[in-house]
Request: fold
Amino acid sequence: MMALVRPVPLTGSDQPVSATPAIYRGFTVRETAGATAVVRIFDHASAASGTVLEEITLAANGSARELYGAGLLTTNGIYVQIVSGAVSGSIRIG
Reply:
């Protein structure tokens, strides 16, 4: 049985998702401005640094999603950086 997953909405800007260790379970993200977009997810509580957990590249008007059953244990928290473009969606944590 898979553990429950909690979606944390993306704000469209760089943002902390979890300030404490968490289980990163995946994402759903959509590009919203008609241009390419890049999103990076870090094992870090408050900055775009440290171990990169995921880098998502989206084509104009594209979308992507992943759900990792066991997830990845983060030791510092989770931080999302919007490198380029405009996006909406959520990060899934357990």
